[in-house]
Design a protein that fits this description.
Blueprint lengths: L4 E5 L3 H12 L3 E5 L11 E4 L2 E4 L13 H8 L8 E3 L6 E5 L2 E5 L3 H11 L5 H16 L21 H8 L3 H6 L16 H13 L2 E3 L4 H12 L4 E3 L4 E7 L2 E7 L4 E2 L3 E4 L3 H4 L10 H8 L6 E9 L10 E5 L19 E5 L12 E8 L17 H21 L7 E7 L1 H8 L30 E3 L12 H13 L1 H9 L1
Parallel strand pairs: 1-2, 1-13, 2-9, 6-15, 13-19
Antiparallel strand pairs: 3-4, 5-8, 6-7, 10-11, 11-12, 14-17, 14-18, 15-16, 16-17
Helix pairs in contact: 1-8, 1-13, 3-4, 4-5, 4-7, 5-7, 13-14
The protein binds flavin-adenine dinucleotide (FAD).
Length: 495
């Protein structure tokens, strides 16, 4: 029997996951990736012989029995991944001004820590976490379980801020529970409560980091595709998607060749997709929904090379804000107040690093801050942009010194990426790191469904507010289920 041919546009996390699942299920898969190296935000780059991850620093649900573990296992790539779980004693340490708060792994442990810190709030803290976990469990597909027909409760209509306010009366406790909002660019009264719940659950349950970098996941997924007969073409972007009637007829790659398939999966930013399709041939409702998407915040990232043997490795995330009042303020801050907070980590190179050779520091940044250079491209940006970068680098290092007062002499060199870098690197409008903005109470701005209004085109990837491995179980599984059936696919993965 002829295998059904599938073309996947974009070889990032979600394009590769889709390709690996469909190749395993017997489809004839071809992935087209515009860059010479597959992986998108999983890619790494080298500076002075030190390798840095571009995007994904942390993965959740990786323990035996959990969602990503089951998916890795089903794809037979689990034993190809080298993961280091973050320290369970403190998955994150937040410095707030001069105070330090250590968040331990596990719901009960975190609740106890917070109850000790804020005794007056007592059981309200536990009730809040119970509600948070209940909300996150409503999205059964995130756990790769068959969704029940029961509609979501208030997770889409309530905002993250409203959820916190409903359970806690004290402002400091409320802000403390918002400290993680920088990790998913949450907005107090905009981000739907269920997104806040999913992200918080992931960090509370504990994440892991790739020993030696995130490219290994891309390599493992490419291996899963090719070992099942699929192909991954790198350095070959798709420059046109030709639509005829209600179908994609063929796609044209950057080398001018035409490629035809029974089905197409678009694993790139949906707004960038509009640059390669004839908008007039998309269903008006679908076009309107895509055009209404607002890219979420981006980040200014500092890639620091540390002097060998000078700075101790730490196996958790560190965060900083000047005061608890800034917990929600990092996304909204004005240019002159930037940055209002940071998160940083020392990515592991071996299982037992004593010293760190590198550090990655992220500060949420709006695209507006770099908009004046939006018509420039990497490699030929003007001097004013370089000056801007140096000023921001210095501002971030000054803030970093409040977390690590002795860090400056340990720094060998510094490189940085702005929202423009992320825009150009991954072809994502606005350089968005976390998909698109969502507005609590306005479900029409919720995620796009897998169908794009064309019979043979499916969308996967960051068409949600969520990032990384939180998106994959829903967007990729929904799209692949269109081809093999959801019940069947979930049974195969959970077998
Ligand atoms: C700084 C940063 C930090 C992050 N931290 C984390 C984290 O700690 N944990 C986490 O889970 N997630 C994190 N994320 C988010 C995560 O990296 C992304 O959500 C995820 O990798 C998105 O995968 P994707 O496949 O949807 O998109 P992408 O990774 O953007 O992949 C899209 C791919 O499509 C290619 N492409 C674009 N246009 C075309 C075309 N026309 N033809 C062919 N190919 C094309 C691009 O080159 C790219 O390879 C972070 C992201 C960034 C940028």
């Amino acid at each position: 029997m002829d295998q059904e041919k599938i073309i996947i546009i974009g070889g990032g996390l979600n394009g590769l996951f889709s390709g690996a699942i469909l190749a395993r299920e017997g489809f004839d898969v071809s992935v087209f990736e515009k860059d010479n190296v597959p992986g998108g935000s999983l890619r790494e780059f080298q500076r002075e012989g030190v390798s840095f991850e571009t995007g994904i620093h942390a993965v959740g649900a990786f323990r035996p029995g959990e969602a990503m573990y089951r998916l890795f296992n089903y794809l037979k790539i689990w034993n190809k991944l080298d993961l280091l779980p973050v320290d369970p004693r403190y998955t994150e340490i937040y410095r707030v001004g001069k105070e330090e708060y250590c968040f331990p792994r596990g719901k009960e442990q975190l609740v106890s820590m917070l109850m000790e810190e804020f005794p007056a709030q007592g059981e309200d803290i536990r009730r809040y976490f119970d509600a948070l976990y209940k909300l996150s469990e409503e999205s059964q597909l995130h756990d790769l379980r068959m969704p029940s027909p029961r509609a979501r409760s208030y997770g889409l209509t309530w905002s993250a801020g409203k959820l916190i306010d409903a359970f806690l009366r004290d402002d400091d406790t409320r802000n403390m529970l918002a400290l993680r909002s920088a990790l998913y660019a949450g907005e107090q009264y905009k981000t739907p409560a269920y997104l806040h719940a999913l992200a918080n659950k992931m960090y509370t349950d504990g994440t892991a980091r790739f020993i030696g970098g995130s490219q290994q996941l891309a390599t493992a997924l490419v291996g899963a595709i090719t070992s099942n007969g699929g192909k991954v073409y790198t350095g070959r972007g798709i420059k046109r998607v030709e639509i005829s009637g209600n179908q994609v007829d063929h796609v044209v790659s950057t080398d001018g060749r035409q490629h035809r398939a029974a089905r197409y999966i678009m694993a790139i930013d949906p707004l960038s997709m509009l640059d390669i399709v004839d908008r007039g041939k998309l269903q008006p409702a679908c076009l309107q929904q895509i055009e209404a998407l607002t890219p979420n915040y981006s980040t200014f990232t500092l890639f620091i090379i540390l002097q060998p043997g000078a700075f101790s490795f730490f196996n958790h995330a560190r965060g900083y804000v000047e005061s608890l009042d800034d917990a929600w303020g990092q996304v909204k801050c004005k240019r002159r107040d930037w940055p209002r907070g940071l998160t940083c980590s020392t990515p592991p190179e071996t299982i037992r690093d004593r010293y760190a050779r590198k550090m990655v520091v992220d500060c949420v940044m709006s695209f507006k801050q770099v908009k004046r250079w939006e018509h420039t491209v990497t490699g030929s940006r003007p001097k004013s942009y370089q000056t801007f970068k140096h000023l921001q680098e210095e501002a971030v290092i000054k803030m970093l010194e409040r977390v690590f007062p002795d860090i400056r002499p340990c720094i060998q060199s510094v490189y940085s990426a702005t929202p423009l870098t992320f825009r150009d690197y991954c072809n994502r409008k606005g350089g968005s790191v976390y998909g698109f903005k969502q507005q609590a109470g306005q479900p029409e701005f919720a995620r796009l469904s897998a169908g794009a209004g064309l019979d043979n085109l499916l969308l996967v990837g960051q068409n949600d507010h969520l990032h990384g491995t939180l998106v994959t179980p829903v967007s990729v599984i929904e799209a692949c289920a269109e081809l093999v059936g959801l019940d069947y696919l979930l049974k195969r993965i959970n077998e």
